[in-house]
Specification:
about 20% helix, Dihydrofolate Reductase, subunit A, single chain, alpha/beta
Amino acid sequence: MLQSAMSTKVVMFSVSSINGLITFQNNPDIYDWTSIEDSDLFLNAIEKSDAIIMGSKTYESNKSKIKLNPKHPRFVLTKNPDKYLTESVKGQLNFTNQSPTEIINSLKDNCRIILVVGGGEINSLFLENKLVDELHLTIEPLIFGSGKNLISQSLLKISCKLLKFKKLNKNGTLHLVYKINYEKN
């Protein structure tokens, strides 16, 4: 975990089915199956954040829904930032091929809260590099037969400590907040 004088917190924010899938089959649009309560929670987290990091796949599947705001700049990790030159908006939507450590180091002096809102590959990269302080996970009361996992196939084994939880609706959508404990592996 990287800490600065400002005390930056890196928060991984995700939603999954009961069985840990973050997409339904091959459909990357989570808004097809997530609750309004989760959407409200996510929008609130964006408002409290100082920067948002995602991968290019998450960006591609959500770009029509993204509302740019210079108070909450977005950073899209991609192997080919030149592909997005025409979509870049200075100070609001940035495309970079920096490593997770490089991007966190570049942001930490000016950010209190950085959201990581990627898919399995981005989530794994940030966890493997021990950059995530908290995991905010909404669990929707659904079971999917297939879809993408919260993390990509990896040798990760990370201990987490439940800090708080809340039932969001009568269907049983739960929001869980975990502290990541890299030392207890």
